[in-house]
Amino acid sequence: MNKEYGLAQLKSRVKRPLTGLKVAGYYGCHLLRPPDVMNFEDHAAPQSLERLIQALGATPVDFDAKLKCCGFHAVYPAEADAMKMSGGCALSAAQAGANCMVTPCHLCQMQLDMYQPEGRQAVSGNYELPVFHLVQLIGLALGLAADELGLQRHVVAAKMPF
Questions:
Q1: Which residues, in sequence order, are CB contacts of 83 under 8 Å at separation 6+?
Q2: Residue 13: helix, strand or coil by DSSP?
Q3: Alpha-carbon span 162 to 160, nearest angstrom
Q4: How many whole angstroms from its chain centre is CA 39?
């Protein structure tokens, strides 16, 4: 299996480096599991998002909840628990010093953004953390405008420090 990410090529195409942005890369619970099926990278200590974040000019932020479940699949049968799960993930990233999160999973992005007010309340958190889908963060670094990437539709405003 070829594991070439093309990060050098991506880095060479960055028009607006995300300098100053501290990004918590969120893998979630499905992206790398089950490891014998996914066989992409070390499921317990992944680094692919961190390398990609660096290629975009941002600073990766490690946080305890980067491999935990966001709660998406539990929203309807166990809403209170799901809010604690998503709130806990974002709180972990905020406490580690991130000023935003990024995930390659559409469901995680939606859960962590759309339900952030309820999640924040469930964990008594005092944070507001924009959550990007990976293609949005890449798009910003490649020079696309925020409105072209749909950032105006986020629940938590994507205020950029550049």
A1: 71, 115, 118, 119, 121, 122
A2: helix
A3: 6
A4: 21
Contact 69, 26 (CB under 8 A): no
Structural domains in the chain? 18-153 (3.40.50.11810)
Strand partners, 100: 23
> What is the reported pTM?
0.93
Please give the DSSP secondary-structure letter assigned to residue 79. Answer: H
Give the closest residue to 24 by CA, choosing from 116, 134, 155.
134
DSSP 3-state assignment of 128? coil
The answer to whether the CB of 134 falls within 8 A of the CB of 102 is yes
> What count of other Cβ atoms lies within 10 Å of the Cβ of residue 2?
4
Strands annotated E in 26-149: 59-61, 100-103, 131-133
Q: Produce one character per residue of 104-113: b if its CB has 16 or more CB atoms within 10 Å, e if not.
A: bbeebbbbbb
Q: Which of 28-37, 119-128, 143-152 has the lowest mean pLDDT?
A: 28-37
Gap between the Cα atoms of 144 and 126, Å rounded? 31
Tens digits of residue pLDDT in 6-28: 999 999 999 999 999 999 999 99
